[in-house]
Amino acid sequence: MTDTEKFLATARQVITDEARALDAMSEQLDDRFAQAVQLILEASGRVIVSGIGKSGHIGHKIAATLASTGTPAYFVHPAEASHGDLGMLSKGDVVLAISNSGEAPELANLLAFTRRFGIPLIGLSSKMDSTLMKQADVHLQIPAMGEACGFGMVPSISTTLTLAMGDALAIALMKHRDFRPENFRDFHPGGKLGAQLSKVRDLMHTGDALPLVSTETAMADALIEVSQKGFGVVGVTDADDNLAGIITDGDLRRHMDGLLTKSAADVMTADPTTIDPEALAEEAVALMNQRKITCLFVGSSVAGSRPEGLLHIHDCLRVGLG
Known about the structure:
Number of strands: 12
CATH superfamily of the largest domain: Glucose-6-phosphate isomerase like protein, domain 1
Number of domains: 2
Helix content: 40-55%
CATH topology of the largest domain: Rossmann fold
Distance between the termini: 46 Å
Shape: elongated
Radius of gyration: 29 Å
Order of helices and strands: HHEHEHEHEHEHHHHEHEEHHEEHEEH
Largest sheet: 5 strands, parallel
CATH architecture of the largest domain: 3-Layer(aba) Sandwich
Strand content: 5-15%
Structural class: alpha/beta
């Protein structure tokens, strides 16, 4: 067997072992998981996640996932907790303590603190007879299925199971709270994810930046508005300031003969495509691609409504969409 074949065989075995363990954990989930969710839902404070070593690394991720999906949470290092950080815990909090063996000595002071001050404790471990699980109010047990290394020393299967349990907890809480994409964006304003969750309202141009003329406006003046605003289009409004049409470069080419003798109403395309300000910017990009246009006036979906803004494809490209 070549080195490449050995590497691939090992990788496949690790993934297979971890997948088998995940299936086993899914099958053994019971009312204790629901009790953990309910305990967190009833808490008036935050979820304090703690663990040492690899469990601590996983704990950091679980705390971050909880916090970003509507469940206030933060990570407290158990060693730092023994040197003053226990002061971060208060009545109303819930502690999620993680230890595969359930015997991490660094957790001792944290566990004692929760018992002393009546702070609910959720234990996450593979050993039900461990110190952690004996002290815990609610038990989240992961299967004891060894580690993928074959000699039980390299945290792999256990950390995968712990991570999956944390994800399950966070998403169960998120769904119960009806946490929506717009809520998610509040905690993820940056990067690609923030761009994907941006609303049209967040990116559109408003006020004096809007290129608008009335139906009676002479095309000479309409062309000046197009040039000054720089979007390559101008919206045409009726006597009630509702959007009646739009003039694009295509309209200008079609009416080139005697263009300057015409009014905006003579040249415009009536009932232009618009988009709601609360729509996701990704929807606007899809609509522009579908219609082969570069901008959209923003307003109510009702035809002829008053324009609230203008969204150009460049605004979407600037934040990473498109």
